[in-house]
Amino acid sequence: MRSVRGLAAFCTGLLILSFAVCVNAQKTDEKAAAVLAKAIQHLGGDRYLQIRSQVGKGRFTTMGEKGVVSSQTFVDVIVFPDKERTEFKSGSRTIQTNSGNTGWIYDNDLEVVKVQNENQIANFRTGIRTSLDYLLRGAWKGDADLTYVGRRPATLGKRNDVVKLTYKDGLVVEFEFTADEGLPQKAMYKHINAAGEDITEEDRYAQFIDIGGIKTPFVIDRFTGGFHASRINYDSVEFNKTIPDSIFAKPATAKEAKKDLKL
After folding, report:
1. Up-side HSE of residue 199: CA atoms within 13 Å toward CB?
2. What are residue 228's DSSP bridge partners?
């Protein structure tokens, strides 16, 4: 799940001006600031920026060379900017929970609760820093520079505006938005896999649905090295529900982890 994933709300009438002034202080060029401001307006403006939590339900599907490998339902709970709990169900139950630089996993088959290792936590942090919400809500400020790349060919003769986040540790993420409306299209970054290969990860956003004046993608496709690796398909999304901190705390026992999530 992405998120996805702190921000300051400001009135819609001052959105473009204040956003541009703010990001310019972070070594951000004006074209990049304008692209983000247009995207924020398109997604809901001030309503989008005031989102503090998100609860999504749907299906997560992994793909293989011959098609679908597995499909399971999920409940994904996010408290921005860096708390997330995802429960997967497909006969058995798995819970993956992260809060800042800590995390744990519950495996129903093994009846065990494990602390996440360094790689798992690092993968979660990468997922946050490469997410659309992290970009648009400005959580990267102070840790990355934002620049305008230019326009890139898209579908049906259209072109996308491309902006780039360059983090201090070398991570580079590109985001594409439609040039006309500013609708988010994709996010891309590269990493080195276990075999030492340079692999491109790409998230493509689709099927935007308006929920109380906020537009959100109900389909997110992940492509790894050009191959369609997985799909997130939401059935429902709710914003700004009250989320207790206790759901992110590591349970003392597997029995405690089994308790149904109630929000």
Report:
1. 14
2. 223
Taking the C-alpha atoms of residue 90 and residue 261, their distance in angstroms, rounded to an integer, is 16
Q: How far apart, in whole angstroms, are the C-alpha atoms of residue 40 and residue 24?
A: 17
Ordered by start, the domain boundaries in the chain are 12-257
Question: What's domain 12-257's architecture?
Answer: Clam (2.50)
Mean pLDDT by 10 residues, the chain (263 residues): 32 35 54 97 98 98 91 97 94 92 93 95 96 96 96 91 97 97 97 87 98 98 96 98 96 89 78
- Cα–Cα separations (whole angstroms), residue 7 to 10, 59, 139: 10, 29, 7
Q: Residues 159, 177: contact at Cβ < 8 Å?
A: no
Name which of 210, 232, 228 is nearest 219 in CA terms.
232
pTM of the predicted structure, to 2 decimals = 0.86
Residues 128 and 122: their CA atoms lie apart, in Å, by: 10
